[in-house]
Amino acid sequence: MTPAEKPRRLGRGLEALIAAAAPPPAAPAAPVAPAPAEPTSALRDLPIAAIHPNPFQPRRSFNPEELQELEASLRATGLLQPITVRQVAEGTYQLVAGERRLRAATRIGWTDIPAIVKEFDDRDMLVLAMVENLQRSDLNPIDEALGYERLTRDFGHTQQQVADAVGKDRSTIANFLRLLTLPEGIRKLVRDGQLTLGHARALLALPNERAMLEAARRVVDEGLSVRQVERLTHESRPAPTTGKPAAAPAPRGASAQDAELRRITELLRRRLQTDVRIDIQAGSRGAVMLNFYSADDLHRLVELVLGSSLDDA
Q1: What does R_g of the chain's alpha carbons equal in angstroms?
Q2: Shortest CA distance to 148 belongs to which of 180, 121, 193, 120?
């Protein structure tokens, strides 16, 4: 991480962990590795060849231009923030945080690198890697979602626990996890930056995989905005089937009613952070339908509707 980068606030669940793992004051800047630390310090100069990748690293791609900038920074000022590792065997280490720094140092020919050696279990490894990457704005949404999924799947975390650890709302975590239900082709477009997070979330409202892929191709080919994709998804939704005869043509005032219905639907979607559908029937009756995508997501929606915790209801 370069001096210009400002880390984001850590989640409540990580403050104690990060405080315990905080490195000592940075070594003086130099184009080569700094002098050896005092014997009582956890800061060491380690052979780069002895450091293995972090198997819990959520990031799958690294921006080549940013790596080049970091290489130039290392040549000019040295490494201002050591990497963090854990020891897995005598003379063998596993990277915990600092993969970009390690890659850049390797590319400019360093054989040793300053490192903080700490004891971490597998859960800590994943959470620390997630936090380091979430503090940077360029982690693509799919890799971020995969990191959250691993915390819930491999370590049994609830969405609320994940949200507390990384300093986000539970609804945000739920929406990221929904991205993993997208077809692989669309997930690749998101990873490559051809589709934004907003595009991906809008595509989720389409009824099937074929419709999603067709809409994604239009986004890439025609440069559709998120708002245009949302209109496509709205138009593609089938009309509710009630078994009743088709309604008569709408009166001229219906367009204003439709606009108000869309406005209310959008307000509910933003407030509840999920897909919402409002069906208006004859006689001022109708139904509001909310989608949920996991038990945690349903729990979240119920608490939002009740305005209090389920435990207090």
Answers
A1: 25
A2: 180
Buried b (16+ CB within 10 A) or exposed e, 270-284: eebbbbbbeeeeeee
What is the tens place of the pLDDT at every residue in 41-53?
478 899 999 999 8
Q: Is 309 helix (H, G, I), strand (E, B) or coil?
A: coil
CA distance 82 to 310: 45
Q: Which residue has the higher pLDDT, 139 or 26?
A: 139
- Choosing from 99, 132, 144, 230, which is the catalytic residue? 99
Domain 12-121 of CATH type 3.90.1530.10: yes
User: Where do runs of H (alpha helix) occur along 135-253?
Assistant: 141-155, 159-166, 170-178, 184-191, 197-203, 209-222, 226-236
Residue 78 DSSP SS3:
coil
Whole-model pTM: value is 0.50
Q: Where are the domains of the chain?
A: 12-121
Cα distances from 222 to residues 97, 211, 214, in angstroms, run: 40, 16, 12
* Residue 39: band (very low, low, confident or very high) from pLDDT cuts 50, 70, 90: very low
Look up residue 207 and give its DSSP letter.
Answer: S
pLDDT, one tens digit per residue, over 87-131 is: 988 899 999 888 889 999 999 999 999 999 988 887 777 777 766
In angstroms, the Cα distances linking 156 to 38, 96, 120, 152 are: 40, 21, 18, 5
99 is catalytic: yes
Burial track 111-144 (b if 16+ CB lie within 10 A, e otherwise): eebbbbbbebeebbbbbbbbbbbbbeeebbbbbb
